[in-house]
Structures are given as structure tokens and as C-alpha cells.
Write a structure and sequence with these properties.
This protein is an alpha+beta fold. It folds into five domains: 3-69, Helix hairpin bin (Helix Hairpins, Orthogonal Bundle), CATH 1.10.287.610; 81-325, DNA ligase/mRNA capping enzyme (D-amino Acid Aminotransferase, Chain A, domain 1), CATH 3.30.470; 480-541, no CATH class; 546-632, Orthogonal Bundle (DNA polymerase, domain 1), CATH 1.10.150; 648-715, 3-Layer(aba) Sandwich (Rossmann fold). Helix content is 36%, strand content 20%. The termini are far apart. The structure holds 2-(butylsulfanyl)adenosine. 2-(butylsulfanyl)adenosine is lined by residues 89-91, 124, 126-127, 131, 147, 183, 235-236, 299, 318, 321, 323.
């Protein structure tokens, strides 16, 4: 135990600051240099906090090499940020041959074509490295950025310049602006050699090539990066000026990159049938152990660039590409216990506590068991997923599986190893947190029992209340830095009125309550002056908040981020939204119909939203919250110059030049809202042949109508 900060003498404080500077620098080096941290993030933060607290008390002792001067020395802080000219997207994953077939069919369907093998796809290894965007202006490398969050990455240009495989200049004749994208990786043999050297020098070895490559790129000193022999494969691009002079297919673009001096993967093929694609996947799988780089699947992309353009993107990934992952890695271990976690919506989730085991290079100690049915061996649609007696019991030896970032799963029970005294797991009938009844609801439509067991305690249940708060402060909601899971637990448990946070509005009254009280947060272990000030700053910076974040933060059942965005966009202001939801409580009312007309909002979601607004306690929390926080009106749809921006459009009848999905995506790209049915608020109805009641209604209401050709003329396509 170290001495409490307020009891330190000047000499002790100076010595302690020196120790902390050294220690934190060592952990920084371990984390960034080797990507092999020795302590948890929480412990690291605690050291950092202690350093800050001592500095706050003895400002005269702040060292020139103080760790607090490297604020945010975390990976994202060391390098400057670069906003990508085009976002760097991720890929959807597919796991089975069936998924691949579905992907290919969806491409044909979206384009309104029959799956007749007329569309070519490229198939190439998915490299397990780091994606990188290289920007060349007038043939010179000007910047290199990591993917980051897809919109903004880190500027690692100096380090990238040390990679021999990446050209510094491009041949004459390339467009003035070119962004080549691809994967930076470390070869397996180079990785093994590096580790052999580390071992010989008695230093700690690295975990895997990917982490080592990541750590090597995050060096502030490029000479270290240079010594690491990183490599590169080009497979994509961002902004390109004058793209018309370039090839019209994915395959040929990549071959062009090769002529510009970039390494490209030799295993890329252009194929058209599902069978040929899967055969190539299997071939690459067989070659995998002999390749000198790690791969974790095969990427398929629509070859023709004009088709890629038509297919466009979903929110995070292109419709024209997918990653076919190699099967997950598995291991055997035992179930030591089964715990129940109670979530925000009261769902009771069983979690298997496992004897730690390494699966695909990661230590696994927990696995979700989803629900009571899953433990029994029954899937979501009532189907058997394991043999009848293979229910999961405490003491069982099980097969666990990890696939990509997915939470580990318990796949099956090894019956030969089942202990004789293992008994069937009895799923709790009462909530382990609040003691309320836990029930399985019946699905109104199918009449079947829901797979989820839910605590009926609602606001009474501490677990639900705490999870609610955690949701409220989470990244896509209020995103309050300094209010993590641990802090929420602390404030929720605190009984002192100057500290307690039970509901969301309490977060915003904390500072005032603190100022009026003698119980000071900064005197409590784990806080300290600096962090308290930062916390209040973080809270205050959220007193104005985007409408969709506000709606999402309310934690309305079934209303995720996408729904919240739809609602914000449709209603524009919180006042309009809440008024409409109150009115929508009357079945068949115009407000109820409007809500259901929003494309992307189904009846279940609509009902949950209306229910939320009917509950008095929710309204009480919201009105207290509104005293503290102002939800900002949603921005009007991007003021694109398109003639349909901000308009509400409905498509009906059969369309001949585009599929319904494509039409919708196109309209949204141009800033229009697409609705499913016609109302007074509709601005335009695009009616194809066979249009019926919607066309009639539009005429009745005097809504402007046009046909497909008229639509294309309007948008200038
Ligand atoms: S294409 C718009 N091709 O996988 C799609 N990505 O899950 C751009 N990756 O962030 C990506 N090998 O880091 C593509 N041959 C390949 C790839 C590949 C590895 C990575 C890349 C990307 C991630 C997506």
C-alpha cells in the first residue's frame, strides 16, 4: 500500500513522482513498443491518477519528464490525426458456403438481375495486419494514415517511409491525387527471427505478427520501425483524381498498382460462379500454413467498378464485398460455474466461468450461454443445436470456440468426461439481483415462449438501473469520459446525497451537490482533484447533445442507434418527437400512422417507443433531465444540391431500371427520406407500372407523382 497523497511529505512526494515517471514510461514502452502490456488499463490509469494527484498537491515538484505532460499518450495521442478523404470501411463477414451463396445472390438481387454467373468477383486472401491509406500528390508520398475509427486515423507517415516495399514516388502519368490502400503486415519468418533475437537477449518476446506490426508502426522513432521489416499489400484505394483514365475493374486496378510499384497479392483471382469461388477459398485455406504471412479469410469483391458504385454501402461496409472467414479456433476446458448477469432490459444472461484456456492466441475465461434454451441445447427457433443429453452442466468439459471478435461460445459437451455428480443447471426463477420474479414472455405473434428470461423488477432492480446508467453514458449515447463502468457502480452504491447517482439527471446535478457539501469527491480514493475537474468538464460538455444521442440514451427497448437516428431525422426536435409519441398512444391516430410510416421502424419498435412514453416514471426522468440538458435539433438533411434533398419520397409499383433497395439507397444518398406509405407529408411518389392504392392516395392528397424516367430526369441521372 502506498501512502495516501495527503500524508506525503515534500521529499516523499518528489521520490514518488520520480518512481512514477519511470514506471509509467516503462509501461508506455511495453504497451506501445511491444504491444505487450504487463498491467491492466485500470492499474495503469490508477498509477497515472496518483501521479496527477501528487502533482496537484505539490505543483512545484512537477518534473520535466512528467507522465502528465504526455496527456493521452495512449496510442491515439502520440500521432497527429488525419481525416480520411474517403472513409475506410470494414467488411461484412461470412462463415459458411451458404453465407457466400447468400452474399452473391444479394448482389444479383440488389441489381435486379437473375443469378446467372454473369457478374465476376475477385477473391484474394484477407491479410491479418493493419490497414493503411497512402496518399500521393503529384506522384509523391505525402501522408500515410492508419484506419483509426474509419473516418480519422493516425498520421504515421515517417514510419511508413521506412518500409522498403512502399514506393516514395509513383511513375509519371499517374493522376495528381492518388490514395492507395492496403495492409501493412509482418512476415511470419521475420516475426520468428525477431522473437529469437529477443529471447537471445533475454528480453520479452512478442505475441503475434499482427500486434508486433501494430507496435512497430506506433514507434515515435522511425529507426525502430525501420528495423522491423514491415511489408505491404495494396488491395484498395481512396480518393483518386481523374479516375476515368484508370481501369474499370477491381482486378485491373490492382494490377495497375503493381505497375506503379506496389506489392499485390499473387493469389487474387477473378471468378464468376459460387463453386469456383469456394474452390479458390479452399485452395487458399490449404496454402495458408505455407504462406509467410497470417491470413484469416478470403475477401470477395464485385469486379466491375460501375457495379460497385451502384451497390454502394451500408453504414459501415460495402454491399459489393464480403470477407469469408476461416473456421474459428476451438479448445477444450471445464465449466467451473454458471453465473447470471442482469442486463439493462432485465434479461438474465447465463455466463460460463471457465478454467482459463488459450483459444487462437487469446486466453478465454468466460463464455456466454445466452439463455436457458441454449444451456439445454435448443436454438433460437426451437431447433436442437446439440444432442438431447448434451445440456451444459457445472463441471462439464466443453468445447469452446472463438471466431474473430465474437464472444467465445460453448459449442458442445464432452460426455465421456462428465462427472458422475454433475446435475442439470436449474435456471433461476427469480432475479438474483432484486428477487423479483423472472419470467419468459410469450411472443404475441407466434405464441411461443421467448428464449429470454426477464426480471420483472423494472426500476426496482438495481442491476437494471445501473445498466441503464451505463448505457446512458456509453460511447454512442452521452459519451461521458471519466464515467466508466467502475465509476457508475461507485456513484450508484453511494448513499451520501452529495455523491449518489441513481438516475441519469443525477449525473448533471452532481457538481452542484458537491459544491454544497463537505463530502468531497477529490478526497475519495481513486479520484483526486484533477480527475474530478476533468469529470465535471466532461459532464458539462454534454449539456447540449445531438438529438439522436439523447433519444438513444433513453434506453427505449428495441430502439438502437439506427432507430434513434431515424427518429431524430424524422421529427427534428425533441419537443416534436415527444409530442408525437404522446399522440401516437391512440391506436390508429395520425401520429401512430406517421411513426409506422418511417421506413426502418416496424411495429414492435413503434409499440415499444409509445409504451416508453406512456410510463410516468420515464417521463419524470426525462423532464428532470431536460432541466439539465438541451437536445439540439437534428440537422436538416445534408443540404446537397440535389433536387430531392430533404424531400419525403415513396416508391411504388414495379421498377424496371433499378431494384427497390437500390432506389431507396440512391434517394437517401441524395438526401431524401424514403417512406413506406403515402401521407400528407409525402413530397413525391415514384410510381412504376402496376402501382395501385398508393398512387390513388397520392392523387387524392395532391402529392406530386412521377414515373421511373421522371425520377431519373429529376435527379439528373
Ligand atoms: S478490402 C471497402 N481486402 O480487413 C473494403 N480488406 O474487415 C476495404 N483486409 O479494414 C477493405 N485484407 O484491414 C480488403 N484483401 C483485403 C484485405 C482487407 C485484409 C482488412 C482491412 C479492412 C478489414 C475489413
Amino acid at each position: 500500500m502506498s501512502t495516501a497523497v495527503e500524508n506525503l511529505t515534500l521529499e516523499e512526494a518528489a521520490a514518488e513522482l520520480e518512481r512514477l515517471a519511470k514506471e509509467l514510461a516503462r509501461h508506455d514502452a511495453l504497451y506501445h513498443g511491444k504491444d505487450a502490456p504487463e498491467i491492466s488499463d485500470a492499474d495503469y490509469d490508477a498509477l497515472k491518477r496518483r501521479n496527477e494527484e501528487i502533482e496537484a498537491r505539490f505543483p512545484e515538484l512537477v518534473r520535466t519528464d512528467s507522465p502528465s505532460k504526455k496527456v493521452g499518450a495512449a496510442p491515439s495521442g502520440i500521432f497527429q490525426q488525419i481525416v480520411h478523404a474517403r472513409p475506410m470501411l470494414s467488411l461484412d463477414n461470412t462463415f459458411s458456403d451458404e453465407d457466400v451463396r447468400d452474399f452473391i445472390n444479394s448482389v444479383y438481387r440488389f441489381l435486379g438481375r437473375l443469378p446467372d454467373n454473369s457478374i465476376a468477383f475477385t477473391a484474394e486472401p484477407k491479410i491479418d495486419g493493419l490497414s493503411m491509406s497512402l496518399r500521393y500528390e503529384n506522384g509523391k508520398l505525402v501522408s500515410a494514415a492508419t484506419r483509426g475509427d474509419g473516418t480519422t486515423g493516425e498520421n504515421v507517415t515517417a514510419n511508413i517511409r521506412t518500409i522498403k516495399e512502399i514506393p516514395d514516388t509513383l511513375p509519371p502519368g499517374v493522376p495528381p491525387v492518388v490514395e492507395v490502400r492496403g495492409e501493412v503486415y509482418m512476415g511470419k519468418s521475420d516475426f520468428l527471427a525477431l522473437n529469437a533475437q529477443m529471447e537471445a537477449e533475454g528480453r520479452q518476446t512478442y505475441v503475434n505478427p499482427r500486434n508486433t506490426a501494430a507496435g512497430s508502426l506506433r514507434q515515435l522513432d522511425p529507426t525502430i520501425t525501420a528495423s522491423r521489416k514491415l511489408k505491404f499489400f495494396a488491395y484498395a484505394w481512396g480518393e483518386i483524381s481523374e479516375p476515368n483514365d484508370l481501369p474499370k475493374t477491381q482486378y485491373d486496378m490492382v494490377q495497375t498498382f503493381k505497375t506503379w510499384g506496389f506489392p499485390v497479392n499473387p493469389l487474387m483471382k477473378r471468378l464468376s460462379s459460387v463453386e469456383a469461388i469456394i474452390e479458390h477459398y479452399n485452395e487458399i485455406g490449404l496454402k495458408r500454413p505455407d504462406l509467410d504471412y497470417d491470413i484469416d479469410g478470403v475477401v470477395y469483391k464485385v469486379d466491375q467498378l460501375d457495379l460497385q458504385q451502384r451497390l454502394g454501402f451500408r453504414s459501415r461496409s460495402p454491399r459489393w464485398a464480403t470477407a469469408h472467414k476461416f473456421p474459428a479456433e476451438q479448445a477444450f476446458t471445464t465449466v467451473e460455474n454458471i453465473d447470471i448477469q442482469v442486463g439493462r432490459t432485465g434479461a438474465l444472461t447465463p455466463v460460463a466461468r471457465l478454467t482459463p484456456v488459450t483459444v487462437g492466441g487469446v486466453v478465454v475465461t468466460n463464455a456466454t450461454l445466452h439463455n436457458a434454451d441454449y444451456i439445454e441445447g435448443i436454438g433460437n427457433s426451437g431447433e436442437r443445436i446439440r444432442e438431447p443429453d448434451h445440456d451444459i452442466r457445472i463441471g462439464d468439459t466443453v468445447i469452446v470456440q472463438r471466431a474473430g471478435d465474437v464472444i467465445p461460445q460453448v459449442l458442445d459437451v464432452v460426455m465421456e468426461k462428465r462427472p458422475s455428480d454433475a446435475v442439470r443447471y436449474e435456471f433461476p426463477k427469480i432475479c438474483p439481483v432484486c428477487g423479483s420474479h423472472a419470467v419468459r414472455e410469450r411472443n404475441e405473434k407466434t405464441g411461443k415462449l421467448d428464449s429470454v428470461t426477464r426480471c420483472t423488477g423494472g426500476f426496482v432492480c438495481r442491476a437494471q438501473a445501473v445498466e441503464h446508467l451505463k448505457h446512458f453514458v456509453s460511447r454512442n449515447a452521452f459519451d461521458i469520459e471519466g464515467l466508466g463502468s467502475k465509476q457508475i457502480d461507485f456513484f450508484f452504491e453511494a448513499d451520501d446525497p452529495a455523491l449518489s447517482i441513481k438516475t441519469a439527471p443525477d449525473i448533471f446535478t452532481l457538481q452542484a451537490r458537491q459544491e454544497a457539501s463537505l463530502t468531497k469527491l477529490e478526497n475519495i480514493d481513486g479520484f483526486g482533484k484533477v480527475s474530478v475537474r476533468k469529470l465535471f468538464d466532461a459532464i458539462n460538455s454534454r449539456r447540449e447533445i445531438a438529438l439522436h444521442r439523447f433519444i438513444y440514451a433513453l434506453g427505449i427497448r428495441h430502439a438502437g442507434e439506427t432507430t434513434a437516428k431515424l427518429l431524430a431525422r424524422s421529427y427534428g426536435s425533441y419537443a416534436a418527437f415527444s409530442e408525437a409519441m404522446a399522440a401516437a398512444a391512440v391506436p390508429g391516430s395520425e401520429a401512430w400512422n406517421d411513426l409506422n410510416t418511417i421506413d426502418g421502424i416496424g411495429e414492435v419498435v413503434a409499440r415499444a417507443i409509445v409504451e416508453f412514453f406512456k410510463e410516468e416514471r420515464n417521463m419524470d426522468v426525462v423532464s428532470r433531465l431536460q432541466r439539465e440538458v438541451t437536445p439540439l435539433d437534428a440537422e436538416a438533411p445534408v443540404a446537397t444540391s440535389s433536387p430531392v434533398a430533404g424531400k419525403t419520397v415513396v416508391f411504388t409499383g414495379s421498377l424496371e431500371k433499378m431494384t427497390r433497395d437500390e432506389a431507396k439507397a440512391m434517394a437517401e444518398r441524395l438526401g431524401a427520406k424514403v417512406a413506406g406509405s403515402v401521407s400528407k407529408k409525402t413530397d413525391l411518389l415514384v410510381a412504376g407500372p402496376g402501382a395501385g392504392s398508393k398512387l390513388e392516395k397520392a392523387r387524392e392528397l395532391g402529392v406530386e407523382t412521377t414515373d421511373e424516367d421522371g425520377w431519373f430526369t429529376l435527379i439528373g441521372g
